[in-house]
Amino acid sequence: MGAKYYLSFLYEKCIKILRGNSIQSYRHDVEAIFCDVFGCSWSELQIALMNNRGARITDEKSEQILACIDRRVQHQPLQYILQKAEFMGHTFRVDGGVFIPRPETETLVRLACSYIAERIKGVHNAAYASTDMHRDTNAPVVVYDLCAGSGAIGISVQKEFGNKVQVTLVEKSGIALEFANLNCLNLFSDSEIRPKCSKDDALTFNNFPERPDLILSNPPYVPPRNLPPELSFEPKSALYGGGKRGLHFIANLVPHAFSLLQLGGAFIIEHDEKQGDGVQEIFESAGFTGVVGYKDLNDRSRFVFGVKWHTDLPNSSIPPAPTFSH
After folding, report:
1. What is the residue extent of each domain of the chain?
2. CB 264 within 8 A of CB 314
């Protein structure tokens, strides 16, 4: 088999191509592509670049690398090129038609984990004791991930708590749900409890055996504006929220989530950094109590939490908002 490229030459060639086409993350992307094609770690690649620069690359590997570089030049997302995305320490399969999970959404998962951990420890039991629900406090915490996409949020929660939670992934896109199912199969052994998958519209979903204790969602919320070209490859239905401020979808989702929740249950949602006040108002108008906003790792307002409560019950029993520090 032919080998016309040396490792160092091909590496520098790819760097030059991406840099020349204004790909800001050119070095990161080249190294990710090399690692994927060669099946090596980043540190192994660096060692090879230092100590084995004259190694010849087979034509097959070179063609694979250059094909990936060509796709990246067209601004296709790196995650689609490699068909994977890293999130909360797990590798999720993604491809065209599936929304790519973002690092900032990990904050939503951490907020959820903080809330669930307190619930499991019994901190929230006073809320249930104040109602007539008589919930079994040893039963798994029921969690719904609405607009689940690849399943990254719900799967990460299930991985964190195992049989102490039961997650349902709700997604209306058939393509996205296929990948959510695939990620469940890949990330859980046969002996582990996997999230359930449900092909439903988050705005009308009501097919549940019991009401959830916690609903999570990273819904469409992007307002009309110029976006990076990479986003043109992602499903528009998972991006744009509708309306001048991008809040049309959220304005319909929040009251529906309220109707789904157990009394004492909570909803945590992600939103655009300029939508914080508007989303909190939507929560309060829908009837949520204890509404709190949270910032992401870049100190931007990105998340809102609220509890479904009853005006006749004491506010002192309301389940507290998650405590969270970056």
Report:
1. 5-74, 103-317
2. no
